[in-house]
Structures are given as structure tokens and as C-alpha cells.
Amino acid sequence: MERRRAAVTLEDVARAAGVSRATASRALVEDGPASTPARARVRAVAAGLGFRPDPAARALAGGAGTRIVLAVLAESAAAVQHCEYVGRALHAAAEVADRYGVGVSLRWAPVHDRGLLPALAAERGVHGVVLVNTTWPVLESVPADLRGRVISIGVGGAGVPSIDVDTLTGTTAVLRHLFASGRQRVAMIQPPAWLPCARRSSLAYRHVLAGEGRPERMVAGGFDVDSGRRGAAEVMARWPDTDAILAACDEVAFGAMATLRSLGVDVPGDVAVAGFDDVPAAALGWPPLTTASHPVELIHAAAVEALLGPSAAVPARRLLPSELVARESA
Amino acid sequence: MERRRAAVTLEDVARAAGVSRATASRALVEDGPASTPARARVRAVAAGLGFRPDPAARALAGGAGTRIVLAVLAESAAAVQHCEYVGRALHAAAEVADRYGVGVSLRWAPVHDRGLLPALAAERGVHGVVLVNTTWPVLESVPADLRGRVISIGVGGAGVPSIDVDTLTGTTAVLRHLFASGRQRVAMIQPPAWLPCARRSSLAYRHVLAGEGRPERMVAGGFDVDSGRRGAAEVMARWPDTDAILAACDEVAFGAMATLRSLGVDVPGDVAVAGFDDVPAAALGWPPLTTASHPVELIHAAAVEALLGPSAAVPARRLLPSELVARESA
DNA sequence: ATGAAAGCGCTAACAC
DNA sequence: GTGTTAGCGCTTTCAT
Asked: Would the CA dihedral through B162, B165, B166, B172 be positive or negative?
């Protein structure tokens, strides 16, 4: 009646290869103890039979779990919900995970929450964790049994490898573009102060401005539209002759442009505005936003690959490039 | 890999409740055969001990799987990758799934692909499927062993429950707003022709225009920015006196506004533009986009809840409301 | 309605 | 190195 297609099991592979289940298992594991000929034979047979290990069985036996948790640190749950970045990250992660028969789930944690990783470690079903918006306290709270199964987007260390975008280079490129096109008094709306990896963009700003012999014009901010609105208002109030604003990210830039518009300030005529991330919306609005690229999808695909793929290929630190995307706003 | 810290197992619950593991299992399953007192006792003990069933063990024993697959039909893989909707859907799905200890993975399938569901059914590890952009052929291809574990976003039927946004009401509200504010010659850039659930918005357009005694101005389209660009160009070429354009979704509206801008047509002065979805970017650009709300997150949270939660509460068809969001563009 | 026992597919001890 | 033997935690026959 019901056509039940029996899936290929390790048992089938072992039998076909003329070895025991254990040997087959070892041969398929990357660094398992197995003789080279046996390993080759098992792998060939497995490939030929189209063997796909059952994640559930593997998890149950090995105690490893069947899902990747994208753990996002933020000041509030709402901040995560309204964050487009998370959607893009999940998109890439869920696509790669699918190829491994694994799923991805999402969890918010308060900034600096040292309880997150221990809780995740105690929880069954967690295969690995991708940490987004990592802070030092959280990084130091990695429990022993989660070691090697955590990857951080942003700052790394304490045995946790990291992947991030090269904000320093990207931000520098944007600033140079600003100065090269004649801007002189460039202000910056800062990223959230609690986020370590974001400090690199502030650093780039300081560095370039020092190089140009220009005084800094920094106001506090975050990664949301409202930071942009408020930030631009503060900038224009404190330094009315500002002729360019660098925002911590595109979203902030959108907020800044909204404020400038309401102030009757023309962008880019009076004030240039630049962001960071090159989100899809950056190219669509008016004026199209000058920004620096941020390969969010690449980063998160690489993160999941690092967790699920051959473990040998995981460098302690990886920086993906960011490039200037010059458009009309600056 | 290091072994896990021991968590509360069903065995612990059974022992504490003074029953066998089997009884405990039955008591926790919704409609399992168990006496009322035993069931109550087991549940109390389980709650007290903080028992969380191991998804992997459950999957292995029951053959159910540990992940939800978000299966998206689209004309190309790239169309999925650039779709903001998918990110938002995953966001909501992954958050709800996390509460059940389950992950979500993403898979693209060609439009009308009848092989998708059978393949997913044969695959181990698949607990359930959320079908996005469902078409009739795909809906009819649900294999027997996946029945009850598939939920469709869009059209339903063939034993597959569905959740969708009430596009008919939303689109009608937008159109009424257009006419109420004095627009007379309203064109529409159509949604993709292959998408059944999208026909409701075309229907709404036809209906309202017939009611107003106005001739239809429809051009073919899709859900991407480029459809908007091309669509608006076609509209203005064929009917230069058009004073409003209704786009199939916000993204299309952005594209349409870009074309109008390059044509020197003022929005909303000369031509009003309205979209559908109320994506975050709709509020940010200039002019802010008039549109209708689309509770994407609610829809996908409900879908995952339907797959993972108590099965009794899944209606065959559920329509979530869409409301006019009036802004400056129309 | 309940308990005992047999697996689900895999990995990890433990021998050899 | 390799096979043998136990489980991982749960659901499900089968008895009772």
C-alpha cells in the first residue's frame, strides 16, 4: 500500500563494503582510525549507494545534537526581531544546513549574558552555536563541552574561531571616498558601544581623520533607524557646517537621511551620507546610498560550514572583504 | 567530541511518577492511551523536573525527523536568495522552532516541481514542511507519508492546511484609498502568473475597477524590483495619463518609483504608487510607501506552531488580516 | 490501561 | 586496525 522507500543505512554500506558497521563508521568520519584501503572502499560504496547518515541517530549516539543555534546578543528581543541582518544570516545558514540534513534555530540573549552558552550546552539537540554580536564576557563563558562547536561572528578568542567582515578596510575606503570627493567636515554616528567588533569602524574613522588633520565629530548611536534619526539631529545641532555623515550601518544612514530631509538639508548637495552593509534597500531608495559591502550571506554560510563540514579547515580567524559601493548619496 | 551533561530523561520522569517508561511516554503524547490519573501525575512530574524530550531520540524511535524544511518554489535559486520575504519567514520560523528544540532548513525548488515533496518525504530528518509559493501540481504531489506534516503558505487543499494573508481585503483597501484620494486611472503591475494565491490581488483589482466603472490597465510582472522597473515603463508608455500604479508588492513598487523618477514623473504629485507587504524599507525611503500590511512573521510562526504544536488546533484554512498603511506615496 | 522488551541508526567502549 | 557489543532516549509492538 504505502510505498516506503527504505533509506540506505550504514549497515547497508558496511555489508556492501564487506566490513563491520563500526569500521564503516570510522571510515566515514574524517579522522577516524581506519586503514586507507578500507576507508577508500567504504567511501566509494557509500557514495555509490547514496548514503546519507541519519542526523538523529548520529546525534543520539554521539550526543551531538541535530541543530545549529544562531544566538544573537542584543539589547532587547525586539531589536532582534526588527533586524534585517538576522533574516539574511538565517537565510544563508539554513540553506547550507539543509545540505547536511540539519536545521537552524534562533535565540536572542541579552548583551553580556554569560548564561547563554552554558544553557545551550546543557540543552540536548544543540549541535553547534553561531554567536552573533559577541562580547568578551560571553566569549569567556564557553563551557568545556561546547568547545569546538561554537563559532563567533565578530570578535573571537578563548578557543572560539571567528569570522567577520573587514570593517576597518571598508570604512576606510568610504571615508577616503568622502574626502576624495571634496568633503571636509565628516561626522560619524557610532555603532553600539557594547559591541566589541564594531569598534574597528570607529578606529578607522579616528585614523583617517587624524591622517587628514581633521577634528573628530562623533555622536553615540546604535544599529537602528532611530539612532540615525537622533544621531543626525545631534550632529547638525552641534556642528551645523558638517558636510558629510558616516553612519554605522545602512539602517542608521536611512534614519539620518530622514532627519536631514526634515531639516531641509539636501543629500548629497549639502551633506553627503554614507552607510555600511550595502543592504538591498540601499540601492533602491533616493538618493541611492553610498556604502561598503558586507557579505553577510558569505559569512554565515562559512560559519555553518565550519560547524558542519570538515573540521580541519577552520581557521581561528577569518576576515571577509568589504568594498566601497559608491552611489549618489555621497 | 565531549559527552553531554546528563539531562532529565523520560526514565527519570517515569521513575518519579512510579510508572513505566512506556506509560510515561503515552501520558505525554497528546492522545496516547493512558488513564487520566496516571496522565496527570506524569505530566505534573515532568513539568516539575523540567523534562524536555530529546528531539533526536524521538525522531529516531518514531521516524519523525528533527527539522522543519521551508521549501520555497521559485523560478530560480537566485530569486529565492534575493528575496527578503524568505529571511523574514525564516526569522519567525526559527524562533518558534527553537522553543521546540527543532531547527529549520531552507530549500529551493523549481515552480511546479512535483518531485520536491516525495524527495523530502524519503529524506530522513524531515519532521515537517512549510511550503512557500505553493502551486496546484505541487500540492497534489504530497506523498502519503508526509500527509499531516505539510502546511502551505498560500493555496491549500488536498489535505494540506493553509495559512495566508487576506490579499483580497488588503488590496481592495489600497485601491479604495487610491480612488478616495482622487486618483482615476489606476494601473496594476501583476504578480507572477504562475502563483495561484497571488491571483486574489488581481481579482481585487478587477473587482474594484469594475465597481468604479474604470477600464483595467494591467501589465505582467513578478515580485522583484525589475518587474517594477519594467512594469512602470510599460504602463507609462501604453497609458501616459495614468495617475496611480498599484504594484504586486513593495519591492515592485520601489522599482516602479525608480522608473518614474528617471522619467521625471513626480510621486505622488503626478502618479501615486502603492505596494503590498509593508516591508521595513517602505517606511524609510522617500516618499514613504503606501501599502498594505502583510504579517509574514505571524504567518510563519503560526505555520511552525501548527507543525510542532498540538495537532488539534490546525484549521484547514486560515487567513490573516491585511490593512491599509497610508503614507506619502499615494 | 499498563509493563516488558524490541528496536530506530549510529558511535564509542572494549577486546582482539 | 578491526569486529563485537553496548548503549544514546524515545516510541511501539506485544503481552498481560
From this structure: negative
Residue A324: DSSP 8-state: E
Q: How far apart are CA A176 and CA B6, in angstroms?
A: 55
Contacts of B124 (CB under 8 A, 6+ apart): A7, A52, A54, A55, A56, A101, B65
Per residue in B101-123, pLDDT (tens digit) is 999 999 999 998 999 999 998 88
Edge-to-edge strand ranges of the sheet holding B186-189: B218-219, B186-189, B244-247, B272-274
Report DSSP state, residue A288: P
d(CA A55, CA A66): 6
Which residues make Cβ contacts (< 8 Å) with residue B43, sequence separation at least 6? B27, B28
B11 strand C contact, CB < 7 Å: no
Measured N-to-C along each axis, helices B84-99 and A84-99 cross at an angle, to the nearest 10 degrees, of 80
A261: chain B residues, CB-CB within 8 Å: 286
Across the interface, of B56, B94, B98, the residue whose CB is closest to A59 is B56
Is residue A55 within 8 angstroms of chain B, CB to CB?
yes
Is residue A321 reached through a cis peptide bond, with omega within 30 degrees of 0 on the bond before it? no
Copy the grid coordinates of residue A306: 565550519
What's the pTM?
Answer: 0.93
- Torsion angle of alpha carbons B91, B96, B100, B102, nearest 10°? -20
Cell of A97: 544546513
The verdict on a CB contact (< 8 Å) between A104 and B91 is no
Tell me the sheet residues that pair with A245: A187, A273
**Alpha carbon distance B2, B10 (integer Å):** 23
| Residue carrying the nine cell digits 483597501 | B173
Whole-angstrom CA distances from B208 to A68, A154, B231 are: 48, 52, 21
Q: At what angle do helices B55-62 and A55-62 cross, to 10 degrees?
A: 130
CB pairs under 8 A between A and B: 199
Q: How far, CA to CA in Å, does A188 sit from each of A204, A231, A301?
A: 11, 9, 31
Is A60 near chain B, with CB under 8 Å? yes
B54 contacts A125? CB cut-off 8 A:
yes
Q: Write down the residue that cell numbers 527578503 correspond to.
A: B84
Q: What are phi and psi of B14, to 5 degrees?
A: -60, -45
For an interface test with A, the pick among B12, B49, B58, B66 (most A C-beta atoms closer than 10 Å) comes out as B66
A244-247/A186-189 β-pairing: parallel
Instruction: Measure the CA–CA gap between A53 and A7, rounded to whole angstroms.
Output: 10
A116-123 average pLDDT score = 90
Helix (H/G/I), strand (E/B), else coil: A31: coil
Q: Give the residue with minimal CA–C1' separation from C9.
A: A57
pLDDT at A329 over 50: yes
Quote the minimal CA–CA distance from B323 to chain A in Å: 20
User: For cell 522597473, what's the residue?
Assistant: B229
User: How do residues B184-220 score in pLDDT, each as one tens digit?
Assistant: 999 999 999 999 999 999 999 999 999 999 999 999 9
Tens digit of pLDDT for each residue in B128-151?
Answer: 999 999 999 999 999 988 888 999
Contacts of B133 by beta carbon, 8 Å cutoff, 6+ apart: B72, B73, B74, B111, B153, B154, B195, B197
Q: Say yes or no: B287 contacts chain A, CB-CB below 8 A.
A: no
What ranges make up the beta strands (E) of chain B? 67-74, 103-110, 126-132, 150-153, 162-165, 186-189, 218-219, 244-247, 272-274, 291-292, 317-320, 324-325
Backbone Cα Rg of chain A: 24
